[in-house]
Design brief:
This protein is α/β, with parallel strands linked by helices. About 55% of the residues lie in helices and about 15% in strands. The chain is built from 19 helices and 18 strands. Strands 8-10-9-11-12-18 form a six-stranded mixed β-sheet, sandwiched between helices. A five-stranded mixed β-sheet has the order 2-4-5-7-6. The protein has a five-stranded parallel β-sheet with strand order 13-17-16-14-15, with helices on both faces. Helix 3 runs parallel beside helix 5 and helix 8 (about 310-320) packs parallel to helix 9.
């Protein structure tokens, strides 16, 4: 609100009002005097002294008008007093009975200009008039004159009071109007500022939307790059692993291939360790592929009921090789008759290997003890070392990703700082706890617990149809229809409390339904493939999806089968039995070791079959044109000319179109980015209730939340 200094007071407003009245009165009287002087001069001959007086009074009035600009108060009083003096002098010079009544306009003028001083002048004029009446100069009835004079004074005073009231009201309204104007200006400024803020907010929101769209595109691109990287790195890992595992398997299972040479027992044990650890590495690569092609918020677990004593003995045997060439003694104290529990064997084995490997790395000399025992409702595992220990201020940081304790052994032995972080996640995913106690310079003890099983807990499992009759199905059982065994394993891995039985195609569906009475069916097929009538009349729910599958890839490329690296000897035997006579086989792969391994496997079981070798697509086509083989084992990922291009050329050449092809691939699922994405369709025999549909919609919306 504005202060009082900002607005003029009532007295100032009244003074301005009287100044305006004074200016107008002086102007009017000066004009009247000049006009009267001219009229008297030409119309009515009078003494020149009167005309001169009128001119002088007119000039005097104009002088007072000018004086009022500097001294308004004095000019007003002189003006009113001059009017009374002139009228009083006129009563003497021009004795007339009507002249005294001219005092009435003077009363009004005096009330307007000088208030109470005008009343005193009016009273003085009445006394002067009374003296003139008493002296016989004029004849005026004093009683009526006094009455009218009082009445005029009263009316003038009340009029001036009303004017003052109006001025007070005007002053108040003026102040209120100015305050409202200031508020309006303030509000207008606020509105302008608010509009500007809205405009800024809109621009910011627009930029944020653009940034979110860009971030979404970047995230999609990062996801595609991640999948591509995982596929490429799995190919690079599987290629050397194929050689290691393949030759280890041949040396372990069929040592007679190398002649009459007998392997020493130590060498046989070492070959067995290479073979077993290679298979463990293969399982880890499978996890990488799962994470790269199936978008999930966390890793999945494949729970299996496990004999802990046998599992821990095998794990300790794997790790024991780490201590053979070091000055550290490895001590194992595993309690007898540990209970069976449900665990993901691959994950827990990785936990043990990580912890024991860390203990060996950070223990220059002394002992590393691995102990396992049952305590109440948990199985407790302890890895104790006599190494350098961990500083107290870094105890809580060692489980963070990419964190490394800054001491020399860590820098010497390297590491990305992910082992303990991953280990903790694996333990917590089993509802266990991982913690550490340590004293710097004396060693550390890493302890993790796994809960004992309860009757209500069932892990997910996957059974092949050929293996299922050996086990009694428990809980919810679903059929998976796909020839690729990895699809069934993948579904079992990512479902909980479900048993999965897989069959190769719909021809075995009727028998499987009669044998297992499944709760539902999962049909994996390409999105463009029409749905068979068989699945439209089933009495149980059917989930139709299009998960990546080697079966789909085989159908699309027109091949007979697909072998995932590392190629196993029994896989080659199983596939070769499909053909009557194979006189020559062409093995195409850009890796020399893979070609030699496949050749060795074929020559071991099929010595009469000629093995042709090619190390790129162009060489393979030249061999097929000159000496067409009975079968081609073809790698899909090769430099210069890929296996996809080789197949396309073979289809367009009549001489090669009839040659059967078995694919060799280091990745289980090969899909191009321009192919249709995975989709899902649910069929319920009796339809779905609206509430069920809403629940499914909610679940799907949660999965499609754009947080990725």
């Amino acid at each position: 609100m504005a202060s009082a200094k900002t607005h003029p007071s009532v007295e100032v407003v009244l003074l301005d009002f009287r100044a305006d009245i004074f200016q107008q009165l002086t102007e009017s009287i000066a004009f009247f005097c000049i006009a009267a002087a001219l009229a008297l001069l030409f119309l009515i001959p009078l003494p020149h002294q009167l005309i001169f007086f009128l001119y002088v009074f007119s000039a005097y009035t104009l002088y007072l008008r000018v004086m009022a600009r500097r001294r308004l108060h004095l000019a007003r009083h002189l003006f009113v007093a001059s009017l009374y003096i002139v009228l009083s002098a006129s009563l003497v010079l021009l004795p007339s009975n009507w002249l005294p009544f001219l005092v009435f306009p003077l009363v009004l003028i005096g009330e307007l200009l000088v208030s109470y001083v005008g009343i005193l002048l009016a009273a003085a004029f009445f006394g002067w008039t009374a003296l003139l009446v008493a002296g016989g100069f004029i004849d005026v009835p004093l009683a009526p004159f006094a009455l009218f004079l009082c009445l005029m004074l009263t009316i003038s005073n009340r009029g001036i009071q009303a004017i003052k009231t109006l001025l007070v009201w005007y002053h108040a309204m003026y102040i209120q109007t100015n305050e409202m104007l200031e508020q309006a200006r303030t509000h207008r400024a606020e509105v302008v500022q608010f509009a500007k803020s809205l405009e800024i907010s809109y621009d910011t929101q627009h930029r944020l939307q653009e940034q979110l769209m860009y971030a979404r595109r970047q995230a999609d691109e990062a996801r595609r790059l991640k999948e591509r990287f995982a596929s490429n790195i799995s190919h690079e890992l599987r290629t050397p692993l194929n050689i290691i595992l393949g030759f280890a398997e041949i040396m372990h299972l069929t040592p007679e291939v190398y002649g009459d040479l007998a392997f020493p027992p130590k060498l046989q044990r070492d070959i067995y360790q290479i073979h077993r650890n290679s298979r463990h590495l293969l399982e880890l690569i499978d996890d990488v592929l799962d994470l790269s092609h199936i978008e999930i918020s966390q890793f999945s677990l494949n729970f299996e009921r496990t004999n802990l004593n046998q599992f821990l003995d095998d794990s300790a045997q794997i790790v024991r090789n780490l201590f053979k060439s070091s000055a550290v003694e490895f001590v194992v104290n595993i309690e007898d008759a540990l209970p069976e529990i449900e665990i993901d064997r691959t994950r827990i084995r990785q936990v043990l290997i990580n912890l024991l490997n860390n203990a060996q790395r950070f223990t220059p000399s002394g002992t590393v003890t691995f102990a396992a025992a049952r305590r109440q409702n948990d199985v407790v595992f302890e890895i104790t070392d006599t190494g350098i220990g961990i500083p107290k201020d870094r105890m809580e940081l060692i489980f963070e990703e990419f964190y490394q304790v800054d001491y020399s052994l860590s820098r010497t032995h390297g590491g990305a700082g992910l082992g303990l972080a991953i280990t903790k996640r694996f333990v917590e995913a089993h509802s266990g706890r991982l913690f550490v106690t340590s004293e710097e310079g004396k060693g550390s003890t890493f302890t993790f617990t796994l809960p004992l099983p309860t009757e209500s807990r069932n892990g997910s499992s996957m059974l092949r149809a050929a293996e299922a009759p050996k086990l009694k199905p428990l809980g919810s059982l679903w059929l998976v229809i796909d020839a690729d065994p990895q699809v069934g394993k993948l579904i079992a891995r990512h479902t909980e409390k479900r048993q999965i039985v897989q069959i190769e195609d719909e021809t075995k569906l009727k028998e499987a339904m009669r044998q297992y009475s499944p709760q539902g069916i999962i049909l994996n097929r390409p999105p463009t493939e029409p749905l068979s009538v068989t699945f439209t009349n089933l009495p149980i729910p059917v989930i139709i999806c299009s998960l990546p599958s080697t079966t789909q890839m085989v159908r699309k490329l027109g091949a007979d089968a697909c072998l995932s690296k590392p190629v196993r000897l029994h896989q080659i035997i199983e596939q070769f039995h499909r053909y009557d006579r194979l006189q020559s086989v062409l093995v195409v792969d850009d890796d020399l070791g893979v070609v030699q391994l496949v050749q060795r496997s074929i020559e071991t079981q099929f010595p009469r079959t000629q093995v042709l070798r090619a190390y790129d697509g162009r060489h393979a086509l030249e061999i097929m044109r000159t000496t067409p083989p009975d079968l081609v084992l073809l790698d899909l990922v090769m430099p210069e000319m890929s296996g996809f291009e080789v197949i396309e050329i073979m289809k367009n050449d009549p001489r090669m179109a009839c040659i059967p092809i078995i694919l060799l691939t280091a990745t289980k699922y090969i899909t191009s980015e321009d192919e249709p994405q995975t989709e899902m369709l649910i069929r319920e025999p009796d339809g779905l209730r609206p509430l069920d549909v809403l629940k499914l919609i909610s679940t799907v919306m949660d999965r499609l939340n754009p947080s990725h």
